[in-house]
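The freezer alarm interrupted the setup, so I double-checked each line after restarting. Inputs confirmed:
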Amino acid sequence: EAQVTQNPRYLITVTGKKLTVTCSQNMNHEYMSWYRQDPGLGLRQIYYSMNVEVTDKGDVPEGYKVSRKEKRNFPLILESPSPNQTSLYFCASSSNYRDLYEQYFGPGTRLTVT
Amino acid sequence: QKEVEQDPGPLSVPEGAIVSLNCTYSNSAFQYFMWYRQYSRKGPELLMYTYSSGNKEDGRFTAQVDKSSKYISLFIRDSQPSDSATYLCAMSASFIGGANNLFFGTGTRLTVIP
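Predicted 3D structure, all chains:
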């Protein structure tokens, strides 16, 4: 089954404790991205990757890091989480940037930073 | 002014009703228009995709774009309880790679009452 998986689905952590949210897709997609979804603000892109070893900032990259060492994986790293990073996070992938309209989204990771 | 405006609802309708969901936008360069459906605790999934103006029909769903008014709509005929979800509009000027190509509305929560 074609899918994007994220782990963990739920995470409660404390300010400053480094964490990683994993994302994996099994569709051999070139393009992957991370979004955060906040009430009243909609989906906002954090980082994206056009292909392996090619990553760049999205709309709201501050406080986040990513890496793309393999085509299928695109982890999101919060080096020192703060309460304003409490949000619902989605990983997404598409075959390439030209097919961005047809992104496949993961199930989401709800992060709470206290 | 936000690029994309969407009434958050919530919207409650009886089963069988015709539902109209709408978004307005400010950027006249937008030419790709999408509707995503997001069930509770799930990621968004693409429902309809339209290029430029006009109508597109898929089963009970019709997407309509009025570029002169900068207004897009999604109509759901014979609504079913399974249509209960949050509906997100999204739009883009072009998929040329790079950041922030896709602008999302904040979503409208729909409940169809049996």
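Quick read of the result. Chain B touches chain A at residues 4, 6, 8, 32, 34, 41-46, 49, 88, 90, 92, 95-102, 104-107 (CB under 8 Å).
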